[in-house]
Protein 1
Amino acid sequence: MIITAGLDVGSTYTKAVIQGEDGEILGKAFGPTGFRLREMARSIYAEALTNADLHEKDIAYVIATGAGRHQVDFKDLHVTDLTASARGACFLFPGTRTILDIGGQTMKASRVDESAQVQSFRLNDKCAAGTGAFLEKTARYMGYSTQEIGSLMTTSKESVPISGVCAVFAESEVINHLSIGTSPADIMQGAIESLTGRSVQLMKRVRAEPEYTLVGGILRFETMGRSVSQVLEADVNVPDEEMVQYVSALGCAILARRRLEKLGAEVDVEAAVSA
């Protein structure tokens, strides 16, 4: 059986996926990237192999993506995260035509064709107000952990306006809301709606069309997917919580298999010519 691997070394988290020949995910792992990208990539890859009950020698091809893809010293190839997320999203939802990827430090919107080729894309401005870090920072300021964001928002009665134009200005608004007794849940809901507004604007810039697929760690919180769906006035695809962070790593594993097939075809052609 031919087995491939994909790594997504993101600015916040590193993810690895081991995929079998039939498309089955044999193992996966993730952890915070930190500052030692090369060591973390190796560690997460080893954990995914252990979870799959496999060894490095069992893997036929490895492709890496993400901000730290150049630091993966055991990769066979690297690709952009736009390419990787497109492959992963279309594998999970074949009808996908627009992808919104909200990570810890970046937000990306892309439009793809029926073969998962990126036709148009846009990235968020260089500001944390358009990323998952905005929500995490808001929660931490109010004394909540990232893991508590989801349960916190379920208690919201109404949202309060958070401009989101700039993370620094948004933080000032959070301080003001807290000072007048606004509930943390309503502040988080306002932050989600601010992020949603920026997300939908980015999607419009790529001339978004259905099906819409939303990926990235921030989509662990169901409120985010519902909020985008409401603003778009359309259904959206969201991978289950187990997979939502692994889409780009999965895309790399899929691309690794395609690369092997291409290399095999080239070898067959060369053999035929030499014969």
Protein 2
Amino acid sequence: MKTTTWGIIGPGKIAGKFAIALGMVEGASLGAIASRDAARGREFASRHGVATVYDDYAQLAADPAIDAIYVATPHGFHAEHSILCLRHGKAVLCEKPLALNAREAGEMVAAAREHGVFLMEAMWTRYVPLMRSIMELTRSGQIGMIKYIRGDFGFFAAFDPNGRLFNIRLGGGSLLDIGIYPLFLCLQLLGEPETITAYGRLSPTGSDETCHAILGFADGATAVVSSTLACGTSLSAEIAGTEGMIRIGTSWYKNDHYEWNRTGEAVSTVQLEPLVNGFEYQIREVMECLNKGLIESPSLPHSFSLMMARTMDAIRGHIGVRYLTD
């Protein structure tokens, strides 16, 4: 595999985790960071050993030494910044959610296809050992046909109208920030829902402080997705089939083990390799796709991200969350 030189747009906390993960992947290097706050950019570069710092995102997008760019700005800017990079011929791994809504996500996919450039949503849990193992187990029919999935993600966050968790302009709200994790689990295993019912409590800024959604599927399966910024929740998930069940404890989305059993049989524990960072798996996926000349990942295609965006739009419609670009 040839070396892939990465750039990062947005020197926040998650970008720091991504920079560390790059050091864990053979053939990956971090070549540049772009920040509109020059001081933050220099501090990030110093901390992670980055040689080049830009204070203009377009300069990074135009840098011929950069092969791929990780977009780590707030949700409200994902579409704008990703399309900028795609138009400059740079492969893009865009932090989840791919965009604020399905319209923006569609524009991003159209740009990737128009310019023949790779684009993937950074839904990192798709590639961790836990998810790979559960997909293998369920696809092999070990628990029969899946009929019910439940997952939650919640923590307490003090209300800050300007913070990314609550600011509508930044794409604030529990669904897009953390509810996307259990939603991803449900859609990955069951596909697109046929019916959606949702309830939520809005913060003073109009973002969703709490979101609960019930999804119905054509084959009769149901799923319950919960997210909240009002309190901590169990951070657990369960997958029930006609012949067995899977249980994932705290924190389910990054756990290194889970329990499962066939109906009437003893419970078994599946122990996986410890999760060190978590982002390294998606980085490898991107680089493998680039080496094959692909513009989307076969395991996390554009169609899946568009489906997830449509589903989140429908959930937000039920609870009354509207973003500026809706």
Protein 3
Amino acid sequence: MTKLYLLLVFALAFGCAPRTYISRAYDFNKLQRIGILAFSSPNNAFDGAENLFAENLLKYGYTVVERAKIEQVLGEQNLGADSYLSPDLTRKIGKVLGVDVLLLGSITSYLPEQKKLAYNINRVNTSEPVFRNEIVKTPEGETIIKPSYAGMQERRERSVYPYEYTIYAQVGVVAKMVDVNTAEIVWVGDDTTEGVSGLDAVSSIAKALIKSFDSRVRAARKKK
């Protein structure tokens, strides 16, 4: 059980790095305000996943426009958050809310955490001497019972102990940033990782992706 737990911790700590790509032609010096849309997901387990990305963007000093304001604009256009964002619509959102890019994302895969039952089986082999009684006569003519060695007896014992362990949740996320004026994708990242829960895994992904995003943005700004 301890060995399994250590292997899971090792996998979490040393999982694959997130993959991120950035537009080399885009001028990131003009990127100041970021609008975030609700992330699409296969079920309601990830409601509010975009807030985890917002927290990390704020951590790196970006200005984030709350999701409710963006959804208000989409509602006025009779569009849901998962609708196709045309260049005209992105420009309208940018003009109304004063954002430079929109962050969109989706949960691409999800395996929930599971409880599993397993068994430890202990086997113990022991051996002990075996004696038998013989009736013999002494030189004096007495009849007595005399124990004599008859060999070794092997004994095998097996004990079974059940225990429960957890298989961590696994989540995949894809996120991208779209320029509101051109509808051009200026950054995209994806990652798959594990966590004690689905949202815990998304939190780890948000942290890793936004850290990579900020690092790439800083490098791009130095080149301009």
